[in-house]
Write a structure and sequence with these properties.
By secondary structure, this protein is mainly α. The protein contains 19 helices and no strands. It is globular and about 60 Å long. Keywords: Cell membrane, Membrane, Transmembrane, Transmembrane helix. Belongs to the chromate ion transporter (CHR) (TC 2.A.51) family.
């Protein structure tokens, strides 16, 4: 684990799951310039890391980072860099830049991965696990508490529902803003930083494929392969694969009909049993190489569409809560697991479901990070895999764009799943809420583009919760 990364990786994930509104330029400023040459001084044998006991290591990362992980990954990474690199000088800045570059292509939140890296330097692989747990624990505990309070309030509490009704269009605005931020630096060439039209096409076509209900795994893998061919100027194989995907789709429609919305799912969590929740978290965690926003559509299609054990409105509420806690956004899975496992009315089962899906979501992050850097460096330096990840990360934009539109529609319409079987008067009231929800969406989007501080999402959520009491309480 102490091996030093020496080659920059795809600068893709950056702040992809960021709840703040930092521009790509601001995000890249976290690690300054990552174009250092391999022979730059200070890239090897340069660490002056204190050897801490396991208990001291846990408290160090819990107190310095876990409790202050507000504002999303941009703020979290900046905090880690300032404390451990600038102030305490555990490693040099060039080495930090290389480490960060490696973690940008791994599944999982980069801030947690950085904590694990420093934990490994201080106390070996066990120290890496301890540091990662210490960083994530405060947000996990707060999300457990939020999930429990949410279940206590109940769906019939009008004040509770009013606040979350206002939060849903705000969340939709956050996701659309995140889509723009991710796209802005995921469709650029590594060498020139200029927009690559082929990566733009990959993103657009993946969004089209989502609308056509082509499985997202097929699209991600296909456009990774297509761009690998394009990067090597193998135009004929690239064009052939591009055409064949739609020929295959046309043949499928002719013989089987248009795919249903649940065709996007793998069907791994048709019921929220503990084993199914673990597998759901595990697969979603493997997809989080593009940030938490990449895992969101997968969890949604499995839990909301195919499994139908989680209402769409509750799913959006999970993202809303995850946006304001001191934790990576992937912590929204904790809420999903709690609400799914609570269907049988057992609070013990609910806590177990929350813990097991979180474990699955974070397991890939821990596995790849604790495994060490030597293999990762080889993968990063592999040109074939680098171009594959370029195409894959660009196609992720299309996946996120589709979920952004779906959540926008659901958030403005309102929680129709809670209106089933209600009297006509209540249905009319639900319809009347569409206008204020649309206004909230537009105002939130404006604020997110105008103000770029790390506290903007938190202030928006607080304001929205208060505004809901005036807008949506009869």
């Amino acid at each position: 684990m102490a091996a030093d990364p020496t080659t920059p990786a795809n600068d893709k994930k950056g702040d992809e799951e960021s709840q703040n509104n930092h521009s790509p330029a601001e995000s890249s400023a976290i690690v300054s310039d990552t174009t250092a040459h391999d022979d730059d001084p200070g890239l090897s044998n340069n660490s002056s890391v204190p050897k801490l006991s396991y208990l001291k290591l846990f408290w160090f990362f819990f107190y310095n980072f876990g409790l202050f992980a507000w504002g999303g990954p941009v703020a979290q990474i900046a905090l880690i860099k300032e404390k451990l690199v600038i102030q305490d000088k555990w490693i040099t800045l060039p080495r930090f830049q290389r480490v960060f570059a490696v973690y940008q292509i791994l599944p999982g939140p980069e801030a947690a991965e950085l904590c694990m890296f420093f934990g490994c330097l201080s106390a070996g692989r066990i120290g890496g696990v301890i540091a990662g747990v210490a960083f994530i624990l405060p947000g996990f505990v707060l999300m457990l508490l939020a999930s429990y309070l949410y279940s206590l309030a109940g769906f019939e509490n009008k004040y509770f529902n009013a606040s979350f009704r206002a939060l849903q269009p705000i969340v939709a605005a956050m996701i659309l803003r995140a889509t723009h931020k991710i796209a802005d630096h995921s469709v650029r060439k590594q060498s020139t930083n200029a927009i690559d039209p082929f990566l733009v096409i990959a993103a657009i076509c993946t969004a089209i494929n989502g609308a056509l209900r082509i499985n997202i795994f097929m699209s991600l893998g296909l456009y990774g392969i297509i761009y690998t061919f394009i990067a090597r100027r193998l135009w004929i194989p690239a064009a052939a694969l591009f055409v064949l995907q739609y020929v295959g789709y046309a043949l499928y429609v002719v013989f089987r009909g248009v795919p249903s919305p649940v065709s996007l799912a793998l069907g791994i969590a048709q019921t929220p049993s503990l084993i199914n929740l673990f597998v759901l978290g595990l697969v979603a965690g493997m997809l989080s190489f593009g940030g938490a926003y990449t895992a969101i559509p997968f969890v949604q299609v499995e839990a909301v569409l195919m499994g139908a054990w989680l209402p769409q409105s509750v799913f959006i509420d999970a993202i809303a809560i995850g946006n304001v806690l001191p934790a990576p956004l992937v912590i929204f899975a904790t809420f999903v697991g709690f609400q799914g496992a609570y269907l049988d009315g057992s609070i013990g089962n609910a806590f177990a479901g929350a813990a097991i899906i979180t474990l699955g979501m974070l397991f890939p992050c821990f596995l790849f990070t604790i495994a060490g850097h030597e293999l990762l460096e080889k993968l990063v330096r592999n040109k074939f895999l680098a171009s594959f990840f370029d195409g894959l990360c660009a196609s992720v934009i299309g996946v996120i764009a589709i979920i952004a539109m779906q959540i926008l529609k659901a958030s403005v319409e309102g929680p129709l799943d809670r209106a089933k079987g209600k009297p006509v008067g209540e249905l009319i009231g639900t319809t009347a809420q569409v206008g204020p929800a649309a206004v909230l969406y537009m105002l939130s989007l404006t604020v997110l583009y105008k103000f770029t501080t790390k506290y903007t999402p938190l202030l928006l959520v607080i304001t929205g919760a208060v505004a809901g009491q005036f807008l949506f309480v009869d």
